[in-house]
Amino acid sequence: MARASIPVTKIAKEAGVSPATVSRVLKHPELVQGKTRILIENAIKNAGYDLEALVKQNSNNSNNVIMVILPTIENPFYNNILKGIKTSATAHGFPVIIYTGNIDSKNLSNLLFVSKKTCVGGIICLGRKLELPIANAIEEEIPLVQCCEYNKDASSVYVSINDYLAAKNATNHILNLNYRRIAFINGPISYNYAQERLRGFEAALAEREVTIPPNWKISLPEVSYSLGLSAASQLLGTDDRPDAIFCAADVFALSVIKAANRYGLNVPRDIGVVGFDNIEVASIAVPSITTINQPAFQIGFTAGETMFERIRDPEAKPSPILLDTELISRDSIIPFHRKVKLS
């Protein structure tokens, strides 16, 4: 009698593909490209296994769930990304589950255990940039798409923006409005986006030969209104204060506006503010916030479609995708006119 269980790793080695591809053929053969599917099916048959029984057995426990890894549920920036992912997943008939937290060597085994128990067919990671061994370990077991944060050396594909160029463009906008005393409130420097936005900010200043005090570049441990308010108060509660503040998140920009009000300063007359992300509240704040628009919904939807491309053909290597950003000019910053002291 033909056998009905199968050593996936052995068949993968025989067919010259990954174990994830073999699993995909057994669970969703209709989603795998014909050439790859036929190669694996022949390897299974040649090894003496009952292909029909295996497909039936595995289809009863099909991996048809998409897992999204979120670093936190408190940052409103992720809302529209999730909407984009869910729109794509719904169109393909896959439910979405959320795993909260950043992935490292300490919780990798738990992630993979939960993924197996919940029949996860693909993971979209929005958390902190994955270390190379971690990213490759996930990819070996389950198709992985890195979203926003990414390790460019990993074998998995990523969907994001060019944070360096976006931050540089935002800083140049501030400089073009004649500001030179510019501070920067940034997110956790352990995140790739924070490193790249800082690099873009510094590059724009360097090209104009503008120097600022080192303590005007603040990196906070998380994107939080309360932490942003504390940082903004630190910058504005002194006579030697900046004339403009570039914020790596709109949440921080809202904090700056609040702090300015506390110190009797008017935005934009006394202090210019530029944010990043273009979350919904940025357009309805008073004043409305000039910001860098991240196409959050498009980022999420593209990540979802990229995932389903991976599911259809696990051996395919889609190209990395960096989506365009744009500066949205609103009311939180105006041209700066230097005050001339009269003797």
Automatic annotation (TrEMBL):
<dbReference type="Pfam" id="PF13377">
    <property type="entry name" value="Peripla_BP_3"/>
</dbReference>
<dbReference type="InterPro" id="IPR028082">
    <property type="entry name" value="Peripla_BP_I"/>
</dbReference>
<dbReference type="GO" id="GO:0003700">
    <property type="term" value="F:DNA-binding transcription factor activity"/>
</dbReference>
<protein>
    <submittedName>
        <fullName>Substrate-binding domain-containing protein</fullName>
    </submittedName>
</protein>
<keyword id="KW-0804">Transcription</keyword>
<dbReference type="Pfam" id="PF00356">
    <property type="entry name" value="LacI"/>
</dbReference>
<dbReference type="GO" id="GO:0000976">
    <property type="term" value="F:transcription cis-regulatory region binding"/>
</dbReference>
<dbReference type="InterPro" id="IPR046335">
    <property type="entry name" value="LacI/GalR-like_sensor"/>
</dbReference>
<dbReference type="InterPro" id="IPR000843">
    <property type="entry name" value="HTH_LacI"/>
</dbReference>
<dbReference type="InterPro" id="IPR010982">
    <property type="entry name" value="Lambda_DNA-bd_dom_sf"/>
</dbReference>
<keyword id="KW-0238">DNA-binding</keyword>
<keyword id="KW-0805">Transcription regulation</keyword>
<feature type="domain" description="HTH lacI-type">
    <location>
        <begin position="11"/>
        <end position="49"/>
    </location>
</feature>
